[in-house]
């Protein structure tokens, strides 16, 4: 019996030792596994990242995010049509383990809300929309501030007093940009008119270039746009006229025409948002950042812009950044001459976000 007791005691000791060693070996594996787990973030783009415009600027922000926060794993899906197909792509991104998704076009809004309801543990950020949920926030920048400044530049530059605007879709965002641009033009050149042509496209190089040509043939000597391609700028260069780009610096695509571009800088917003989610401090909101946040800006001026004109634009830019000037401050009249904003009053964000009329100085109509 004594021998058996000693034997069993030895066996129990060995079993306990193996158990301790086994537990000890699992711990670093768990820790190592945690180290290898990366926060996955998905981006969905309406156009190709090589569009030189909207999707290009968002992808630059994605790359900035990766550099600023090590250990992330980001992915993107480009050229996703707005509508039902975007719901499928958003679902696909979630099923692949993405815990944060940035949907970067207005037309993804309803799809984002639908998919977010199915996946409450995933955070969705929708660019330029207005619908939110507990796990859905919206984000945008006050591009109308940069648009106003490019209008000042166009108004100072035009000789024909005809300026062309190639417009995308008749939604408040686009209408707001046209109005802000026209207010900028008329602030320095009350005789100038802004002609609008609609393409109903975000990304169609041929159609957008043709629209630019039609405006130039109608007498415009400066053209600008609200699409993702440099087509209108290239049309201006071919005609020996000037242009103002959008989304990103388009001067490389038409160096003799582009005076500047109204540009987006999404990177810092993406970094701040992801850090807030990681820290557990993020809450659904509707971010609409001003020029002072550096989310919108002007690209460097081209050599054709004189120092005197630069000074005029930069002075107004500083007033906007410092909050001394607000673009949509009355008196503002519509095309029919009716006063819409009284002298000294500022248009509310709600009114700006639902704009469906043109200011005085715009030539064109808003399709229903």
TrEMBL record:
Pfam families: Bmp. InterPro entries: ABC-Purine-Binding, PnrA-like. Residues 39-322 form the ABC transporter substrate-binding protein PnrA-like domain. Keywords: Signal. One of its GO terms (cellular component) is plasma membrane. The keyword Cell membrane does not apply. CDD domains: PBP1_BMP-like. Residues 1-21 form the signal peptide. This is Nucleoside-binding protein. It comes from Desulforamulus reducens (strain ATCC BAA-1160 / DSM 100696 / MI-1).
């Amino acid at each position: 019996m004594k021998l058996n007791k000693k034997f069993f005691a030895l066996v129990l000791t060995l079993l306990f030792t193996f158990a301790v060693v086994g537990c000890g070996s699992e711990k670093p594996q768990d820790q190592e596994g945690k180290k290898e787990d990366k926060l996955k973030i998905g981006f969905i783009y309406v156009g190709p990242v090589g569009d030189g415009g909207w999707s290009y600027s968002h992808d630059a922000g994605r790359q900035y995010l990766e550099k600023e926060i090590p250990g992330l794993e980001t992915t993107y899906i480009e050229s996703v049509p707005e509508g039902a197909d975007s719901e499928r792509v958003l679902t696909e991104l979630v099923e692949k383990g993405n815990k944060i998704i940035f949907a970067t076009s207005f037309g993804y809004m309803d799809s984002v809300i639908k998919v977010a309801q199915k996946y409450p543990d995933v955070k969705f950020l929708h660019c330029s929309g207005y619908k939110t949920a507990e796990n859905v926030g919206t984000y945008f920048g006050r591009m109308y501030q940069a648009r106003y400044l490019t209008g000042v530049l166009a108004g100072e530059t035009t000789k024909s007093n005809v300026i062309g605007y190639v417009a995308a879709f008749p939604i408040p965002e686009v209408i707001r940009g046209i109005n802000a641009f026209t207010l900028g033009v008329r602030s320095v050149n009350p005789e100038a008119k802004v002609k609008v042509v609609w393409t109903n496209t975000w990304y169609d190089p041929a159609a957008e270039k043709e629209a630019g040509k039609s405006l130039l043939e109608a007498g415009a000597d400066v053209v600008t746009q609200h699409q993702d391609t440099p087509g209108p700028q290239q049309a201006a260069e071919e005609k020996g006229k000037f242009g103002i780009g959008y989304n990103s610096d388009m001067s490389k695509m038409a160096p003799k025409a582009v005076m500047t571009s109204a540009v987006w800088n999404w990177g810092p917003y993406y970094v701040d948002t992801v850090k807030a989610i990681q820290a557990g401090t993020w809450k659904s909101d509707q971010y609409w950042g001003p020029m002072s946040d550096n989310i919108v800006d002007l690209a460097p001026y081209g050599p054709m812009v004189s120092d005197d004109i630069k000074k005029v634009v930069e002075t107004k830019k500083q007033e906007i950044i410092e909050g001394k000037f607000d673009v949509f401050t009355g008196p503002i009249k519509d095309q029919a001459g009716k006063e819409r904003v009284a002298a000294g009053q500022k248009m509310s964000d709600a009114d700006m976000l639902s704009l469906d009329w043109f200011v005085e100085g715009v030539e064109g109509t808003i399709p229903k």
